[in-house]
Amino acid sequence: MTGPSAGAAAPIHDLEEAPVKLATLRSDNPDGRLVVVSRDLARCAPAPVPTLQAALEDWGGVAAPLQARADAVNAGTAPDLQPFVPAQALAPLPRAWQWLDGSAFLSHARLMARVFGMEESASHLPLMYQGMSHRFMAPLEEVPFRSEQDGIDFEGEFAVITDAVPMGTGPAPAARHIRLVALINDWSLRLIGAREMKTGFGWVQAKPACSAAPVVVTPDELGPAWARCRVRLPLRVNWNGAGFGQADGGEMSFGFDELIAYAAATRDLCAGTIVGSGTVSNEDCREVGSSCIAERRGIEMLDHGEARTGYLRSGDRVTMEVLDADGTSVFGRIDQRIVVTGGTAAPATEVAR
Amino acid sequence: MTGPSAGAAAPIHDLEEAPVKLATLRSDNPDGRLVVVSRDLARCAPAPVPTLQAALEDWGGVAAPLQARADAVNAGTAPDLQPFVPAQALAPLPRAWQWLDGSAFLSHARLMARVFGMEESASHLPLMYQGMSHRFMAPLEEVPFRSEQDGIDFEGEFAVITDAVPMGTGPAPAARHIRLVALINDWSLRLIGAREMKTGFGWVQAKPACSAAPVVVTPDELGPAWARCRVRLPLRVNWNGAGFGQADGGEMSFGFDELIAYAAATRDLCAGTIVGSGTVSNEDCREVGSSCIAERRGIEMLDHGEARTGYLRSGDRVTMEVLDADGTSVFGRIDQRIVVTGGTAAPATEVAR
């Protein structure tokens, strides 16, 4: 460490306020190779730790070297600088030990409850499920699905990545375990999901691998857009080139601190746990649009008595991006086509045989 | 390879029929050190591959060397033979990328539906949820819980561990991806679980880390006890030294082949995926007993109008073991005390704050 605190132990607080952008490039390692990315996403340089998982397991030890590298990348002085090529990027954590996805926008939950004539769940607790985490799709990768009959949908959401969180950690200390913020597309198969929800067991078939934007950022990299453990920026979703939604993450009814505390109530969270916000949704969804087709269909059912928008078709393109106040892309862009493999055209309610 | 097929390519079939017992010993590596264990669990020797995860990622390459090592361990001729000490064992996969737990005993589901006056779910599909997989507790480890008020319960079940299974794999080919069979205690917090089920999102708080018996075995190690992708042996559960249940795994309404096919319907399964049977339960549960307290309480409610058996208390000891026809322990024993940390005594329905 150099600077004002040189010679003294660096206060933890400083280490936590290291504005850094990180990405993972394809390599021989399934966990890829970690790079530090410039603020404008134009350049990058190898990080002083090989993988993001390794960094999260020793955040206290790597935060200062990461920030030093980020400073050099942003100044253009890093010796091993290279262009940042999104096509070379994997998901920041190509595989994670744990993915816990919340549903933290109550305006969405209330709307969907109205659509389906359901009772609203108790609003003093967030909803959360454990999702598949052994693979997150790369931001520009083609995404395979088995059948259009499954009701293929996207779900734009924010997520945070934590270091190790002990069981019983409350919201205030939980906030200090948020190391990185991410942009996720939580692909969902709606026609399977309705059946699985009724079992009470949650989703398995309805929730295949998620996709992730190429870049994750430390909370303070977001500046004033990070407030109350929420991302106060619109999440721009495009479907086949047309704007679909730009709902703002600031309207979360539960902050990520509360979601982490919920997740850690009865278990330790490992370093590299990803906690999601659920589909980003705003009260004025008729103006700003939605982050998933299911919500738009719900609005159509309320307004017109029927859903008019169909789910995704093979070949459809979905992009997601978040711009900061200056118009700079925060996380880079998810830009993917889906392809229906046709491996089976079985109805969603049947086991593949 | 030596023997009848020496000089020719070894048929895959032979490699798959390698009777082997494996365990993972504590080491500097969080994934431990893989050892081959003798049939009687008395001795072991280092496996020719460092970890179980690595073995599962290259099963075709390691099956023959593993079997050769197993032969030498059983013959007592392995040069680096050592006593197998269960206290040194971690869970066979101390952390796994994926844990998908089924509920494959319909007699249990039907009984619980009667107790709670619920509609039975469609019985042509197994139930399944995604569980926490980043930690499996060691077989003799003390297990921490936050509060007795959460309704602490055990769930004895069988599980299989697969290699990589492509999306859309049906039951018949799925059977060939079953590499190992395991014994699991799926700890459950019943008073939280009821609330979480109602949300449709499945369980997060209600399902902390599972425990595992020290030894996993290849299916053919089970001999005739492995039939129709089921373990036809009783799972012996003791609670504070008293027999609680010895339900037989052969009564699974869905085989592990069908559970894997269900799990792989819309996703690739990674090597090292663990698929569970759900609590082992038999039609004659009043005679053979149960593998979880919840089932016994259900029987009491039907028979006496009220549950008489309470959930676990701090200090309680739970053991699980499976003996083969010769009385040999197949998987070794789970033998654990629980300890309530008292980190919070909040009611189960509140977020820890």
UniProtKB/TrEMBL annotation, chains A, B:
Keywords: Hydrolase. It holds the Pfam family FAA_hydro_N_2. Residues 100-338 form the Fumarylacetoacetase-like C-terminal domain. Residues 21-95 form the Fumarylacetoacetase N-terminal domain. The keyword Hydrolase applies. One of its GO terms (molecular function) is hydrolase activity. This is Fumarylacetoacetate hydrolase family protein. It comes from Roseomonas acroporae. The lineage of its organism: Bacteria, Pseudomonadati, Pseudomonadota, Alphaproteobacteria, Acetobacterales.
